UniProtKB/TrEMBL annotation:
Lineage start: Eukaryota, Metazoa, Spiralia, Lophotrochozoa, Mollusca
Protein name according to UniProt: Reverse transcriptase zinc-binding domain-containing protein
Pfam families linked: zf-RVT
Domain of life: Eukaryota
Record organism: Mytilus coruscus
InterPro entries: RVT-Znf
The Reverse transcriptase zinc-binding domain, residue ranges: 35-113
Amino acid sequence: MEHLPSKYMWKKQLKTSINEYWSSIWTIECNTKSTLKHLSLQKDPVNNPHNIWKCVRNNQYDIKKAELKLKLVTGTYMLQSTRAKFSKNIHPNCKLCNESEETLEHFLLHCSNLSDVRQRYIMDKLFKLLREIERGGTINVINNELLLKII
């Protein structure tokens, strides 16, 4: 008990230990939980809110949009394919287009009834952003899984 740390050093060490613990828990859960496969892992998730929350303004509409985005990213948004897993009476096909099973990929990338919305809000902004990153070049998206992660 001769060399007790100062109050400041003790608080700093405690905070660092707690943050390291929760960062390791976060990393393990992101790697093991299927619902978090579309959520991009960021550096220091304990002290920095996710990018979805960083771009939210302080109004009810933006907060609702962010909640919806997080549900889609974490796989907790109830799509028809998810509902069909829990009930035999529910068909997994998309209620908007009725063309195929309503999965996250179908909902965000392929649903014909959402193509106008997708083109206006997602694809135009996405490709503009990618062009800015590449300074005028185009990036070929390898597969739909990668495109979903980028969105």
